Amino acid sequence: PPSSLVSLTVNGTRHTVTVDNRTSLLDLLREHLGLTGSKKGCNAGACGACTVLVDGQRHNACLTLAVRLEGVDVTTIEGLAEGAQLHPLQQAFIDQDAFQCGYCTPGQILSGVGCIQEGHTGSPEEIREWMSGNICRCGCYVKIVRAVEQTAG
Ligand code: FES
């Protein structure tokens, strides 16, 4: 199948890889770069487990073709902490006990970072609306919203 060379930055590191043109950003991250923090739930844009930031904007990595990402900047869950210092939203998820099994958590946190960066934190309802594409089968929604609220201040 046709393949292409794509060069992009992930968590501050530049990568140049040859990928099959049908490869999603999620498969590029997980299978080519070994970054398995972004999860594959539905692989169809319906669960949010694969959420990452592309040039600061929230994206479902499973729906994004890797070959279209020449030159972009991707942030995944592996890129949020600074050394031993967790990102404030990662800490807030711990403080608020905002997960059980943890499978959706990387996507929830990246979605929450997008929510805070774009200023959609005026009320719990606004946060809930923004986060509504991120499914949690353990039902931690109330605590997830609290963690985003805690971080937004
Ligand atoms: Fe991408 Fe479900 S795996 S939205």
Low-pLDDT windows of residues: none
Content of β-strand: 15-25%
The pLDDT mean sits at 98
CATH topology title of the largest domain:
Ubiquitin-like (UB roll)
Domain 2Fe-2S ferredoxin-type: 4-80
Protein name: (2Fe-2S)-binding protein
Keywords: Iron, Metal-binding, Oxidoreductase
Task: Name a few traits of the molecule.
single chain, 153 residues, alpha+beta, DNA polymerase, domain 1, 5-stranded mixed β-sheet, 5 helices, 5 strands, binds FE2/S2 (inorganic) cluster, (2Fe-2S)-binding protein, iron
At a glance:
By secondary structure, the protein is of the alpha+beta class.
What can you see in these coordinates?
31% of the residues lie in helices and 18% in strands. By secondary structure, it is an alpha+beta fold. It has 2 domains: 3-79, Ubiquitin-like (UB roll), CATH 3.10.20; 88-152, DNA polymerase, domain 1 (Orthogonal Bundle). A 5-stranded mixed beta sheet has the order 2-1-5-3-4, sandwiched between helices. Strand 3 (51-54) and strand 4 form a beta hairpin. Helix 2 crosses helix 5 and helix 3 packs parallel to helix 5. The protein is globular, with a radius of gyration of 15 Å. The model has no long low-confidence stretch (mean pLDDT 98). Residues 40-43, 45-50, 60, 62 line the site of FE2/S2 (inorganic) cluster. The site of FE2/S2 (inorganic) cluster (FES) has 12 residues, from loops.
